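Example record

One chain of 113 residues, shown exactly as stored in the release files.
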Amino acid sequence: MRCDNLGCIGRLKDGRLVALTMAPQALREDCERASVVLTALSAPPNCKAMVIDRKVVEARGAVTLFGDQLTMLTARPPGYARPWTPQPAMPALQRRETPDATPRTGDLEADDQ
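Predicted structure tokens for this chain:
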């Protein structure tokens, strides 16, 4: 690993670069050169690298990368719910026509009125 005031860069055993980006001005270069970018910032949407940024951590929790293919395992995979974590907003329910349940006049008893 080599570090400066903008972040750190290291190599995986196969030679691919991993960047720990700490300054916004380093994101563009790290997104172009590295295979993986780790940052507490928000990476640009056009980043070519696998990105673990603040958006990923907020949505998925802690992240582990493992194996030669850098498989990502997250604490909160899609669809996994815990009672103490906020749930994504549910889509609005569509209104359905409610059938008219008012009894017909001929069906009413004397004490129903």
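Notes: The chain has a mean pLDDT of 83.
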